[in-house]
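Changelog-adjacent note: as of this version, every example in the card shows the full chain rather than a window. The one below runs 408 residues end to end.
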Amino acid sequence: MEYLLDINLTMESFVEVKCEENDVEVKIEMPDTDIEADEKQDNVKFENMEYGIPVDVKFRSKTNVFPPKRFLTEEKTYQCEYCYLKFARKSYLTGHQRIHTGVKPHQCKYCDKNFADKSNLKQHQRTHTGEKPHQCKDCGKSFTQKQHLIHHQITHTGQKPYQCNDCEKSFIRKGSLVEHQRVHSGNKPYQCKYCEKSFIRKEHISQHHRTHTGEKPYQCNDCDKSFTQKRILIEHQRLHTGEKPYQCNYCDKSFTQKNSVITHQRTHTGEKPYQCKYCDRSFTQKSSLLKHQRTHTREKPHQCNDCTKSFTRKASLVEHERLHSGEKPYQCNDCDKDFARKSYLVEHQRLHSGEKPYQCKYCDRSFTHKSTVLTHQRTHTQEKPSQPCRLPQESDCESTGLLHIKEF
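Full-length structure tokens:
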């Protein structure tokens, strides 16, 4: 069975074909070896190394990259016992039959994943070793797979041949255009098998599935933490290396994450792109907007499993749950006291250091706690508090963490 495919390997380094007899879709990737062809256009036949499906490929005149001669189809003497396709080599037949049997004999030595094809195993293991053998000649960046290098090299030319009909955006790869057009159409073809959520991109559903399975395949080499996404691992590793590649355009601060520098720069520009739909307040971060809007809706989505209390923020729920568990993870380095909240520890440590960061704006007195300076300032403004404090001294309030309010 042959498939006539018209592709341009300058733009796309793989093609997808579908076997009509057994309804199996496979991806034919460009081999790692480049061979320049004398002819501007030709038809060649080569076989997918993983599944052994013969493909008749027509190359456009734009490209001079062809598969090596060892991929040309020879006499087909090996027949599949399941679907009766014939193959030129026994190894092709063996690889093809794994479609039917589901056998994945090649196991990763770093994790428990298995693969049907040795080349796919090799590519996967590079995610563990960090090996990137395919290097760009223009900028020196390296990649784990050749098709990633090919896509990257187009960024140097500035060419984006795939343009969206609904907006002005254009893309380097056709696959990126197809994914983008789903934003306009609302099509979300990838549905979660554990819940009702669906997604535009395949990698997004893979990441989402891990929230159900708990899988964290990306592990830090410097500590025992692991992560659901490679991007999060890279950002975490910067905590060990101290690398902060994203620098503010307005000051000398730098950040480990791109989102952090974008959010920070809004403190300089005053930009607040996230506006509340219930009032006229705006925010620099989407998370801050969502928290604020719960003050209007009274929504408290984070509920305690041990009692009936619920909270607007997950962090508040975590702190509350420590009241039930008795957990106090924050320990003072100067004494043996433990605290349920980090803020309690910070305030406690000021008793050792003598630091009083909160200064009265009416006189020269300073205080350990913000609540205490607010209470003190009422002695200047003559503002009456709603509930008087029964403790006699401010020091008693600071030791207990209570708000001290004097009776007038």
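Structural remarks: The radius of gyration is 31 Å.
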